[in-house]
Amino acid sequence: MPKLRDSLNDMSIRPITASDWPAIMAIQAQCYIELTPESLAVMQSKWQASPTTCLVVEQSENIAAYALVHPWPQGDAPSLDTPITLIKSHSWYLHDMAISPAAQGMGLGKQLLEYVINQATQLSKHGIGLVAVQGAKGYWQAQGFLPATPSSTLKAALKTYPADACYLYLTLD
């Protein structure tokens, strides 16, 4: 993967396009070492369900990060490696956010999350849920996400994630 610039000046956040998927899949493979990466079909199902909320960070004409975000009920999560279809919900689910190893430490994750939160707020969403994996619970809590008591359907979904998986929710004003 080409080296990314150390500056955020030439960064843009935009919706995913079909030509972005090879780079997205490469980033996923580089970032998720404690779980089996999801298939292209499963990843694309999130995008197909909500194409305007699934995003990439493009920097120096390279994909540096991505976020798969889609409507999903508060207090619940889709099972890992399972395709989804569009559902109506007042909450969003941040299914996946990954930063290329070449771009880590540059603040892209914070800017991408801020973009998602601003978009959700503008659309009057109640909040954003996610499942933290690979020791990321502390990172997400530092961003304002809080643990929630899992429902029976969430407990079933969490069984498809690694043992350290934790559902968190960010309530938006």
UniProtKB/TrEMBL annotation:
Keyword Transferase among record annotations: yes
CDD domains attached to this UniProt entry: NAT_SF
Protein name (record): GNAT family N-acetyltransferase
One GO MF term: acyltransferase activity, transferring groups other than amino-acyl groups
Phylogenetic placement of the source organism: Bacteria, Pseudomonadati, Pseudomonadota, Gammaproteobacteria, Alteromonadales
Domain N-acetyltransferase: 11-173
Annotated InterPro entries: Acyl_CoA_acyltransferase, Bact_Acetyltransf, GNAT_dom
Keyword terms of this UniProt record: Acyltransferase, Transferase
Source species of the chain: Shewanella algicola
Pfam families recorded: Acetyltransf_1 (PF00583)
Entry superkingdom: Bacteria
